[in-house]
Task: structure prediction
Amino acid sequence: MKTGLITSDTYQDHDTGPGHPEQIARVSVIVENFKKLNNKNILWKKPSIITDDIIKDTHDVSYIDLVKNSFPTKGFSSLDGDTIISPGSKKATFDAAGSIIAAIDGVQKKQFKNAFCSVRPPGHHCNQNKAAGFCILNNIAIGAKYLLKKYKYKKIAIVDIDVHHGNGTQDIFYDNENVLFISTHQYPFYPGTGSEQEKGKFNNICNIPLPAGTNSEEYLNAFEFALKKLKEFKPEFVLISAGFDTDARDPLASFKLETEDFYHITKRILETSKKSCNGKVVSILEGGYDLQALQDDTRRHVDALIEFD
Result:
């Protein structure tokens, strides 16, 4: 079976202004690279149209209304200091959330075995009622809530490999025994959360904070803790917050990972969860701000998804 690649042209209309690191080219270079590679094992798909009913399982209704009414008719506006929006941002925002719905439905209906969503804006810093760190809706959290509600799963794991802690996702699931949230991240660093002491009400939060300068060997050794937790939890479905800003080339952080590491990280997640979820894995783009690194790393990430059997 093929691997799904979910994307939409609307990401191009989410203009964050000159010099902003969360730029249009982040997704353009990924999509163009996959088109050029023309891998027959990839099935391209558009995002689903997402309804308020799905979003309100994750975000407060008042926040959804605020977001909908915040997009300017011209120029730029902001939802927080980092999160810039423009007129085209609205469609891109809801398509980004809709991509994870399309990916989950596609896996459930056996249209493809697993999927990667190449979309923007990212989501993992956004909590129930606040945009932050370039994130407007929490795409991965919306996906997890959708799996719990629509498909009646009882055990969803979210593995966040972004260099920044997924504080919004942690907030949303802090008291939810059905969701295991695992995060490897640079610490101390933005957004300031993610210590080992933050464990969740049901010991369902697993933070693995790592120092600036962490290299491949150090990271992969530490990642064994994440895999051990994943194996113990026995997830029925795995979601990956796929940040590629741990790459040594990334301008916003200080990890030293190499392209091949993303293949091994993805492969280990797939192998560890194979017995409990039979390869039901969906990942979605979070951070990553060096354009060449994004091309290289997403290719190897998707290679691991394609190869999984």
